[in-house]
Design brief:
The complex is a heterodimer. Chain A is α/β, with parallel strands linked by helices. In chain A, the strands form 13 sheets. In chain A, strands 5-4-16-15-14-6-7 form a seven-stranded mixed β-sheet, with helices on both faces. Chain A has a six-stranded mixed barrel with strand order 20-25-22-24-23-28. In chain A, strands 11-10-9-12 form a four-stranded parallel β-sheet. Chain B is mainly α. Chain B has helices at about 20-35, 40-65, 80-105, 115-135, 160-195, 200-205, 215-250, 260-285, 295-325, 330-340, 345-360, 365-370, 375-400, 415-440, 445-450, 455-470, 470-485. Chain B has 17 helices and no strands. Classes of the chains: A alpha/beta, B mainly alpha. Chains A and B meet through helix 23, strand 32, helix 29, helix 30 and strand 36 of A and helix 5 and helix 10 of B.
């Protein structure tokens, strides 16, 4: 075949120019778009194809636009899942809470690699699983944004290698300079070994222990009288009569968890036990323990020694000498009871004065406490610092005798009474090293900073009481480039083993095998019988002590008491918003410290008259409180005043732990750029041996006002016995049914107690088969310490709202502890205090449920009043209609869970919201959130759920194991936190459950709050029984009663004591 | 025929001066056709300014949360619900005037009903803002509507008084709007027919639904008016009754009171009439309508004010008595301590309420004062202040100190945004009212024409003529006259 040419057109055949051009063009025909070019898109005649194109494009565009949503944060699952780890199932590790010398055995709940909650370790025989507010909150310190992230030298980041090199050379070049290791009390056996090895390497070295709140006076007194510098175990459970001279042993003194448990043993009254211990408190300010006392007497702070001496002489049958009036009567009465209960009595004293403690020892000896209620076999090792050691150190530093100062766990630039002098003397030290998790006041001044891990990231141990060892094991990989303090010391003493290996070897050697070591880690505690012994009592110093204390008394002028708040303690956890927002049990104030003053002083200097309803109202409802100026020696501090009845007239009390440096963290700063509260440590006085926690003070009115965040403004329960029922032991013994009868009378017209459920309403009454969750709270065992409040916060992701929001009554606490005073505000001895934990009562006939227009709150078949947060539109009607006022509304986006994204910054900039709320939104901080509990967004209502996630867990556990649910399956967060066991929870339909047991056993003390409005709560209370003689004051501040009665034109139905 | 020449001494003419139909149309419709006055512009711009401030206040609240307001864990409702109840109450006068007075054949209502009904609608619109924007999550507000949804068997809670509110207020608004609008149609047609501008003709043409004034139209119109009046009448009673249930069905001492429904209704009419007075005293002056909204109207309404004010006063005293007689310590406290006690934090608000609502309206027992415009205006403002405080007292002083003294609150004062929201509703109300007075006849032209021949100078003149006739002629003439009257309406 020849080359045959096929052609389609003449153009192709002839290769015309037009043809060549046309084949170069891909689309031979004009594209329809051109018409659009000419006429504009809108007017273009759209062909079917165009229509489809436009349709396709616009659909695609719409889809693309619609798929723009908030960025999705992915949780990436493990590629290689660690063995034994199930996502969503919590692991528990035994470890130890450590703050300074304080140590409490705990169990850490770890969810997906993050510790999120601490519970007490029930295997510990002395804490028995009790916790404190600070312990509960400490898990947040792990995720604190202010934590140091890398080692620093001269304020710039460096490496451990460089630091090790520099320090090793500095230490070898010390010359005559002394090497001092300054720490808080160290009671860890392994750490003590490391320190001993380190000190051995450097001959000219010493270890100084400095406790912010020291018990030097007690240690020295015990050394003087018993020949042992140690603090014994106080066994409150063995005491029928307890006298406390200002010691707040239920909340802040020495070992409150242990004492709460022991004390409670003597306070519970039920069917079988109709007697209770008698607790006298002699103090100046109203401490939380004093608030729980049966009888309380006040005296000037400087009179503590005289009171002790008077008590001793009264016990010895010589009458209370040196005191007069009510105080004398009280001391003699207490002495009589102590003597009558010889061997079953205990006297404790807060004083840090050696002489006072010597007298107290003599009293305890005289009443046979030694060996019965005081046990020397196991000593308390949490506070071993002696104040004079620190004073000596400062002198040494000033004199240039100290060449190197290594600081761990202590913060003298803040905690030392003469911090300025310490700071100045620090400049004379060549080598300063701080092991700390944050740049606190002391660390800022140090040359080398080695970030210390949090206890939840560390290996370690503690021996808070001799014979009671508690292990520390890491629960999370260290978050930052931290190095244990021990490892640094080991490195600098030439031991390169590494702390982990050293620690394990130490304990394997001590315990004998790997298995026992593992068992110890698993249990968390190793308990061996105590071996310490005290010498016989040596009373030689008592007479001189009595002489010494008689000279301490100040007869006139105001005196200042410096104390610890149960929330913040000595201030080591000052950047913890949970603790800052925890209202003080007595004053109900959060976020700040303040001057607690007596009603007399308030009346005299500030024109606030608590006895006058109008004046009291004005003071209560106004968040702006007058400011007082306190002058001690050369230090002046200005603080807002909080008036507390029960304060001795001339006593002013200020808490430590506040007024921190900004570097401590975001939470300590005030909105105005200053700090929250004022530092009270500089107000302490040093008597040459020990620090005095009281001092004379000059006061004046600063003439300005300061906003104080108070979550409860009214002090009295106004005789509302349906809210708080209290009775004296005498009344109770006389008629055990007194409470029961009172209830019966109130319900008489609604069918009486028996038929109240049915006859108190027009509505049908339903059976409630299956599980019915119920809670019982024993007012006799609630001391107001707030551990439950913080535990609830943590367990349920309750938001932090900051000071300004608390001041606006926007606090979010699901569980709060109401505090009421009764008595005459001008007579401190007459003041009685009652604490009442208040949470959602989970009413069977819940008034909140029927008013919600969208049924967002409703009742579960198990008796829980529930919230469907997603359904809530935020009308707040439920909160209005809640008689217990326990519902909490998300007024702003406190959690960063808002539908509108993070828009709080403008509010913070305007000063309407505190910066700390943003701190709680940080990714790091949010690691603490409990994944089992929804984080609520702005605009929804929330409240106590009876820890429904735990209830669900308990049911599932029982179901999985194919058995009925039992009490041990479920503990609410508040219940678990309570060291006193005030709260029991369980299935009230199960007659064998603890809550049913407590209710039936205590039928005579049982009551429901404002029962007669027929809400049928599922939280029952046991009335408070006070072992006092008088009848109380009917729950009112008496001068209120009279005024109210006048206003009513009728007399109150309740008896009113006249004064 | 002297018997026919009856000139009542107590019922003076409803329209002053001898107006004929054309004059009526001229007087009332002229302001719509003329350019708005300087005064109108000033008032309108102030209103719009307030409205914008309100919009911004709400924007703040929605963006940042209800925390922009000073409500707290104890006081869940404050200015928001106070204002809601207050505005709802104000609306009541309009409905009462248009519906109940229509059924009772009160001729004087024609002078004021249009403005009063408009006021009702605007007040209900304002009232509605509060329950909507006071929600924490307003974007979920539609949850309150019982609509078929994909959320499973999820329904609204029919037990909740707030849900009853949703129904009550929406029904009220719908019926009031229909009533008002159906009354407007003949007048809008009048405006349309007089219009010279194209757009005006077009717009009013649309609005008047093609009204031609045929007998059929009139017949249907009258029937519809009666039906709507019949529907509205129970609403006058029911709406505020339902609103009072928000409080009466709760357990809060001071809220839980069975007297609330009648007491709220009386209070609503009281405040509503006061608001009508406030508006009309100004409107008649500004729009030059003194001949239609006469002193007689003012006086009649002042009588209603003194009556309802006294009912409210009795209700207050009854409440106090029952709180003492009932011996419920919590309720006793709410009344004796939170309210009566002048020295308690909110005692002043209770006594202010007492002074404004109970004591001050008693001056209207004097005819001279009833007919005094300045006094009337002043009193109408006082009454509305008093009624605002009544709601505030009920809401805030009850919940701020209820069962548990531990939760007794700090002092509640509103933030600027709470106040802004309230001012914003004033802005909304007056913006609407100004627009209404500019674009709609503020007096029902057709209805005025209805009464024109039964009241006023022309009526008297007419009667005098008739007097002169003998019975037979009269019989004949009245028939003729009646025949004529059916054609007069335009």
């Amino acid at each position: 075949m020849a080359k045959k040419k096929y052609w389609q057109s003449f153009g192709e055949l002839n290769h015309s120019e037009a043809y060549e051009k046309s084949i170069a063009n891909e689309f031979k025909e004009e594209l329809p778009f051109e018409s659009a070019d000419k006429k504009g898109l809108i007017n273009a005649p759209a062909s079917r194809r165009d229509f489809l194109k436009y349709l396709g494009f616009s659909t695609a565009a719409a889809i693309a636009a619609a798929s723009c949503e908030t960025p999705v944060r992915k949780a990436i699952p493990y590629v290689n899942k660690p063995q034994d780890m199930v996502p969503g199932v919590a692991d528990y590790y035994a470890t130890t809470y450590v703050s300074g010398g304080e140590a409490i055995p705990v169990v850490a709940k770890v969810r997906d690699g993050r510790p999120i909650k601490l519970e007490g370790n029930t295997l510990s025989t002395y804490t028995k699983g009790g916790t404190t507010a600070r312990l509960q909150a400490s898990v947040l310190d792990l995720y604190d944004t202010a934590r140091l992230r890398h080692p620093m030298a001269n304020n710039s980041a460096t490496s451990y290698e460089a630091i090790d090199r520099q320090i090793n050379s500095a230490l070898s070049a010390l010359g005559n300079g002394q090497l001092v290791l300054l720490t808080s009390t160290i009671n860890s056996p392994s750490t003590k070994q490391v320190i001993a090895d380190f000190l051995a390497k450097y001959p000219n070295s010493k270890h100084v222990q400095f406790d912010a709140v020291s018990y030097s006076g007690m240690l020295l007194a015990n050394e003087a009288t018993y020949g042992i510098r140690a603090i014994p175990t106080y066994q409150f459970e063995n005491a029928n009569v307890i006298v406390s001279l200002g010691a707040d042993f239920l909340c802040t003194w020495l070992s409150p968890v242990e004492f709460q448990h022991g004390y409670t043993a003597g306070r519970k009254v039920n069917k079988t036990r109709t007697d209770m211990s008698k607790h006298y408190q002699f103090e100046s300010m109203l401490t939380t323990t004093g608030a729980n006392a049966d009888e309380r007497y006040t005296h000037r702070p400087s009179e503590t020694g005289i009171v002790a001496a008077a008590l001793l002489s009264a016990i010895n049958g010589q009458g209370a000498t040196g005191v007069t009036g009510k105080l004398k009567t009280g001391i003699e009465k207490a002495a009589k009871d102590l003597v009558a209960n010889k061997g079953k009595a205990l006297v404790v004293a807060n004083s840090n004065n050696t002489q006072v403690q010597i007298i107290v020892n003599a009293i305890n000896e005289a009443i046979g406490a030694n060996g019965t209620t005081i046990n020397w076999a196991s000593t308390n090792q949490q506070f071993q610092g002696i104040d004079s050691d620190m004073a000596t150190l400062v002198q040494d530093m000033e004199a240039g005798r100290v060449g190197a100062l290594l600081i761990y766990g202590a913060n003298p630039a803040y905690e030392y009474f003469d911090a300025e002098r310490f700071k100045k003397s620090l400049k004379a030290v060549k080598l300063t090293v701080s092991f700390n998790d944050r740049k606190d006041e002391t660390t800022q001044l140090c040359k080398y900073i080695l970030p210390a891990p949090h206890f939840l990231e560390s290996w370690g141990d503690a021996e808070p009481k001799s014979g009671h060892i508690s292990m520390i094991q890491p629960t999370i990989n260290p978050l930052f480039d931290t190095r244990p303090f021990q490892e640094s010391l080991m490195k600098w003493s030439g031991n390169n083993t590494g702390w982990d290996a050293y620690f394990k070897e130490y304990w394997v050697n001590k315990l004998g095998s790997n298995d026992t070591f593992n068992k110890a880690l698993q249990d968390g505690v190793i308990e061996t019988p105590g071996t310490a012994t005290a010498g016989a009592f040596n009373g030689a110093n008592v007479a001189s002590a009595i002489t010494a204390v008689s000279g301490l008394r100040k007869n006139s002028g105001y005196e200042l008491v410096i104390y610890q708040k149960v929330g913040l303690g000595d201030g080591k956890q000052a950047n913890n918003p949970w603790l800052l927002e925890l209202p003080d049990p007595i004053t109900r104030v959060s976020w700040d410290n303040y001057a607690v003053i007596s009603p007399q002083l308030a009346k005299k200097d500030f024109n606030i008259d608590l006895g006058n309803p109008k004046s009291a109202d004005e003071y209560e409802v106004n968040v702006m409180k007058p400011v007082i100026r306190l002058k001690v020696r050369n230090t002046t501090v200005e603080l807002p005043v909080i008036v507390v009845p029960g304060m001795q007239a001339d006593t002013i009390a200020v808490a430590i732990g506040y007024g921190r440096s900004k570097e401590v963290g975001r939470a300590v700063g005030a909105a105005d750029g200053g700090t929250l509260g004022q530092n009270a440590y500089p107000l302490l006085a040093y008597n040459g041996t020990t620090i005095d926690w009281h001092t004379p003070v000059e006061v004046s009115n600063a003439g300005r006002k300061y906003k104080v965040a108070t979550s409860q403004t009214h002090n009295s329960y106004e005789g509302r016995h349906e809210v708080v029922r209290e009775v004296t032991l005498a009344e109770y013994k006389k008629d055990p049914e007194i409470i029961y009868k009172e209830r019966a009378k109130e319900l008489e017209m609604f069918g009486g107690l028996e038929n109240f459920a049915k006859d108190g309403t027009h509505y049908p009454v339903y059976d409630r088969p299956g599980i019915k969750w119920g809670m019982n709270i024993d007012l006799n065992a609630c001391y107001g310490c707030g551990a439950c409040v913080v535990a609830c916060h943590i367990e349920n992701n309750v938001p932090i709202v900051g000071k300004h929001e608390v001041a606006r009554f926007h606090d979010m606490h699901w569980l709060r502890i109401d505090r009421y005073f009764s008595g005459n505000p001008n007579d401190p001895e007459s003041i009685q205090t009652v604490f009442q934990p208040m949470l959602c009562q989970h009413c069977d006939n819940a008034p909140c449920e029927n008013v919600c227009p969208v049924a967002a709150t409703h009742h579960s078949s198990e008796g829980i009043n529930m919230m469907a947060y997603n359904r809530c539109i935020g009308t707040r009607y439920c909160a209005n209609n809640c008689p217990y006022k326990v519902r909490r509304f998300n007024w702003a986006d406190y959690t960063g869970a808002d539908s509108f994204g993070n828009n709080q910054q403008p509010l913070v900039d305007e000063g309407n919201l505190d910066d700390v709320v943003l701190m709680m939104n940080d990714d790091l901080t949010r690691m603490v959130l409990n994944p089992d509990v929804t984080v609520r967004s702005r605009g929804v209502m929330e409240k106590c759920t009876f820890c429904v996630q735990r209830c669900q867990d308990a049911k599932l556990k029982a179901k999985r194991e194919d058995r009925p649910m039992v009490d041990s399956d479920i503990k609410t967060a508040c219940q678990q936190a309570c060291a006193a066991g005030a709260i029991v929870f369980g299935n009230a339909n199960d007659p064998k459950s603890e809550v049913s047991g407590v209710r039936s056993e205590n039928k005579n003390r049982l009551y429901y709050v404002i029962e007669q409005i027929h809400t049928m709560p599922n939280v029952s209370y046991l009335a408070k029984v006070r072992n006092s003689d008088d009848n109380g004051f009917g729950g009112r501040l008496t001068e209120h009663v009279e005024a109210a009665a006048e206003a009513h034109g009728q007399t109150s139905g309740h008896s009113v004591e006249s004064h | 025929m002297a018997v026919l020449k009856y000139e009542s001494q107590v019922r003076p003419p409803l329209v002053d001066n001898a107006k004929d139909y054309h004059q009526v149309t001229e007087d009332i419709v002229r302001p719509i056709e003329a350019a708005p006055s300087r005064l109108w512009w000033i008032g309108f711009l102030i209103s719009v300014g307030l409205l914008l401030f309100g919009v911004y206040s709400i924007y703040r609240e929605v963006t940042y949360g209800v925390g922009q307001w000073n409500l707290n864990k104890t006081i869940g409702w404050g200015w928001d619900i106070t204002n809601f109840v207050w505005w709802v109450g104000i609306g009541h006068a309009g409905t009462l005037i248009s519906a109940i007075l229509l059924l009772f054949r009160q001729g004087w209502r024609t002078g004021v009903n249009r403005a009063a009904e408009a006021m009702t609608i605007f007040a209900v619109i304002c009232a509605g803002q509060f329950p909507i924007w006071h929600m924490g999550r307003v974007w979920m507000a539609f949850f309150v509507l019982p609509y078929a949804n994909t959320r499973g068997p999820l329904w609204v809670n029919f037990n909740s008084p707030l849900l009853w509110d949703v129904f009550a207020i929406s029904t009220y608004f719908t019926v009031s709007l229909l009533f008002w609008y159906s009354g407007l149609i003949p007048d809008l047609a009048t405006v349309r027919d007089r219009a010279r501008l194209k757009w005006r003709k077009f717009m009013y043409g649309l609005l008047s639904f093609g009204w031609t004034g045929s007998t059929k139209h009139w017949q249907r119109h009258e029937s519809l008016s009666l039906v709507l009046a019949g529907l509205s009448t129970p609403l006058v009673l029911s709406v505020h009754t339902v609103v009072s249930f928000d409080f009466a069905t709760s357990v809060v001492p001071g809220w839980h009171t069975t007297i609330f429904p009648p007491y709220f209704v009386a209070g609503a009419i009281f405040s509503g009439f006061a608001m009508v007075q406030t508006l009309l005293v100004v409107t008649r002056k500004v729009l030059n309508l003194q001949e239609y909204i006469t002193l007689e109207h003012i006086e009649v309404m002042n009588k209603v004010i003194v009556l309802t004010g006294s009912i409210v006063g009795i209700a207050y005293l009854t409440e106090l008595f029952i709180s003492w007689y009932g011996q419920n310590p919590y309720e006793g406290w709410a009344f004796a301590q939170n309210r009566l006690n002048l020295f308690s934090p909110y005692g002043w608000s209770y006594w202010l309420m007492m002074a404004c609502n109970v004591i001050s309206p008693q001056i209207f027992w004097f005819r001279k004062l009833r007919r005094n415009l300045v006094v009337t205006f002043f009193m109408s403002v006082i009454v509305n202040i008093g009624m605002w405080f009544e709601r505030f007292v009920i809401i805030v002083t009850s919940i701020y100190r209820d069962y548990l003294p531990s939760s007794w609150s700090t002092y509640y004062t509103p933030t600027i945004w709470e106040v802004g929201f309230y001012l914003g509703t004033f802005g909304l109300f007056f913006t609407c009212y100004f627009l209404f007075s500019k674009f709609f006849p503020v007096i029902a032209v057709a209805e005025i024409k209805h009464i024109l021949k039964k009241s006023g100078e022309s009526y008297k003149k007419n009667m005098t003529e008739i007097e002169k006739l003998d019975a037979e002629t009269f019989y004949h003439d009245t028939h003729k006259h009646h025949h004529d009257s059916s054609e007069v309406h335009h």
